[in-house]
Write a structure and sequence with these properties.
Blueprint lengths: L5 H10 L6 H10 L4 H15 L5 H19 L7 H15 L5 E2 L2 E2 H17 L24
Antiparallel strand pairs: 1-2
Helix pairs in contact: 1-2, 2-3, 3-4, 4-5, 5-6
Length: 148
């Protein structure tokens, strides 16, 4: 992890030794704090190692989901990012399609509904209003006590 920020490296170190990969748990820690770019960054290493494996598309979908929110966070009139955000929501949804309702302790039915909701917010305003505010950023939790 030498190429990642010291903050990310420290987060991953604190999550080692649990029953799920530290990078996976780190994605949730970052995502739930609204650190969407960092969520993308922390999971990328795990995805690269498994991109052709059984969780490759699952991790890719999580990266794309975080990326959609990066676009919403960085949206500005000069460089609108609402349509790219919607496109990433769609790509994430497609990557989650082969997985069951719950995968790696994540309720994917809930994630799919979240994606539909946020993409719908963009579409209903014809991409003229960013629905993300600091107060309404989404949070995701794992089933069971995944952080033990």
């Amino acid at each position: 992890m030498s190429h990642k920020s010291p903050k990310i490296a420290a987060l991953i170190a604190d999550l080692q030794g649990r029953d799920l990969p530290a990078h996976y748990l780190g994605w949730f820690a970052c995502f739930n704090r609204g650190l969407f770019y960092e969520a993308h960054d922390v999971l990328e290493e795990l995805w690269l190692a498994d991109r052709h494996g059984p969780n490759g598309n699952f991790y890719k979908g999580l990266i794309q989901l975080a990326g959609a929110f990066v676009h919403l966070q960085k949206d500005c009139p000069k460089y609108p990012r609402l349509r790219p955000a919607a496109a990433l929501f769609t790509l994430a949804e497609e990557n989650f399609r082969p997985y069951p309702a719950v995968h790696e302790r994540l309720d994917l039915d809930h994630v799919r509904a979240l994606i539909a909701d946020w993409r719908g917010r963009l579409v209903t305003t014809d991409f003229t209003r960013n629905p993300l505010t600091p107060d309404n950023a989404p949070k995701l939790v794992l089933t069971e006590d995944a952080l033990r």
